[in-house]
Design brief:
Order of helices and strands: HHEEHEEEEHH
CATH topology: Nuclear Transport Factor 2, Chain: A
Helix content: 25-40%
CATH architecture: Roll
Strand content: 35-45%
Largest sheet: 6 strands, mixed
Shape: globular
Radius of gyration: 17 Å
Amino acid sequence: MVESLARRRVLNFLDAFYAGDIAAAQACCDDEFDSITHAPVELFPHLGHKHGKDWVAEAIQTQQKRYSSRKYEIRFLAVDGAKVATTQVVSLRKRSDDRVVHLEVAEFFTLRKARILEHRSFFDSFDFVQQVLGHDLTEAFAASVRGAMRR
């Protein structure tokens, strides 16, 4: 019973988040909601370590400003008691040039009293930045890393 409730709560959160329904997404979260998205905060200042439900609104609003559409597709979901793990493919249509960027995201949720208490997220920020910019950065990056490794 706990597992089915945890599963449903996370799916409700993701549905509300990508639909832009701030109130519904926040309603899925505990008052002590704690989120860590592992990404360079210099590039993604709205990510990193955030505490409180206000981050949910900030994240939704930031994405809505940058992207005209936001969709996700669950690829994997596992539940163990009050813990839920997901992987999904997220598609974002950029407002600036109408290009669609895709990223694979892994998210881990811990619930307390049927509300999301902890959220941990990982994605390939290098690949995402290349998609946002619209060109490959691998060679330039590799050259700078090779130079640094020789020192």
